[in-house]
Amino acid sequence: MTPWTFHNPVDVRAGNGALAQLPRLVGARDALLIAFPEAEALGLVGRVRELLGDRLVAVETDIRPNPDLRWLAPLYERLWREHRGARCVVALGGGSSIDCAKAMLTATPSGRFDELLDHLVDPKAAPLSADAPHRALIAVPTTAGTGSEVTPWATLWDAARGRKHSLHLPWTWPEAAIVDPSLMVSLPVGATLASGLDALSHALEALWNVHRNPVSSSLAASAARAIVATLLALLREPRRLDLREALAVAALQAGMAFSNTRTALAHSLSYDITLTRGTAHGIACSFSLPRVMRLAFGRDAALDARLLSIFDAADADGAVAALERFLAALGVSTDPADYGISPDDWDARVAQALRGPRGRNFIQALA
């Protein structure tokens, strides 16, 4: 067997009522809360206030989807200027809240956001010290999908320039994750669908990945099976706590898997669609999964066997058809034309994506 490693340093606390462990995890530190706009009305901000008391020194709930540099920069500079002594950030919400919180962790020399951005563009030209007083992150997801609570990555968008930045630093791993399914019961159906399909994308992309290992593959396969078995039923009965818990565990497993592999071709194809058309990330990265899976078949016998098992299929055609039926039952088109992409344009996008950093993670790159 080729040598391999699996690493994930996040302290995971999971189960119904797990939010009660937040005070112990924060300890004596002052904390900032980054949350989604509806968190106050849903009573979630109040619950965090009750748990942390005067240790909670600031609450920010004006967090928009797909965190953009236009509003991230002033938020970052204000929080470091007004609350430099706060050593902990609690992120409550979906991927956007957790990604935003990760952007608030890094202590730049002057407290300016552009120094962090310069580092993302060219780390050698704009180094950051690991000994700076960076903040720790406790991630509390209220969606089951992004996996951001157990990965170091955050996607920061620059819509004005039509590009994105991937934030990944040694201190952007969450210190801890609290996965409490009871916080997810009020999640709207549309967000449940998009986040669940994001998790499915993470799971499958961790499987057809050049960086896969036995642990990541086992986690990913288990996650994919659970999502296929659970998501449609949850959309029909969104307040069923047992289904919320099953999907939360699956999303966590998928996050653990791709924390070691990164994503691959489907995610690479998705970013421009989200940026230019506003398509929800989970939809943008999942509609292409059947086409990408067809490309993955025949590259590795063990991978083929896992995919056939997940979709209870006898051959590649059967597995692809099963995934197409699953997405169709969820109301998700798998036709690129429905996302404004012609057949010729689609082929060109795939070719270009395979040459990019995410595309090179795809097992197709081994051919």
Mean pLDDT, all residues = 95
The CATH architecture of the largest domain can be given as Up-down Bundle
Give the CATH topology of the largest domain. Answer: Dehydroquinate synthase-like, alpha domain
Assembly classification: single chain
User: What's the number of extended β-strand segments?
Assistant: 8
In which order are the strands of the major sheet placed? 1-8-5-4-2-3
- Total domain units: 2
What structural class do helix, strand and pairing data support? Answer: alpha/beta
The end-to-end span amounts to: 20 Å
Helix-strand string: EHEHEHEHHEEEEHHHHHHHHH
Question: How much of the polypeptide forms β-strand, as a percent range?
Answer: 5-15%
Task: Please report the first level of CATH classification, the CATH class of the largest domain.
Answer: Mainly Alpha
The CATH H-level homologous superfamily of the largest domain: Dehydroquinate synthase-like - alpha domain
Number of helices: 14
Largest sheet: 6 strands, parallel
The helix content is: 40-55%
Radius of gyration (CA) equals 20 Å
So what's the overall shape? globular
**Low-confidence runs of at least 5 consecutive residues:** none
Explain the layout of strands and helices.
Elements: E1 11-14, H1 22-26, E2 31-35, H2 44-52, E3 56-60, H3 69-82, E4 88-93, H4 95-103, H5 113-121, E5 136-141, E6 153-158, E7 163-168, E8 176-179, H6 189-207, H7 214-236, H8 241-261, H9 265-277, H10 281-284, H11 289-296, H12 301-310, H13 316-329, H14 343-355
Parallel strand pairs: 1-8, 2-3, 2-4, 4-5, 5-8
Antiparallel strand pairs: 6-7
Helix pairs in contact: 6-7, 6-8, 7-8, 11-13
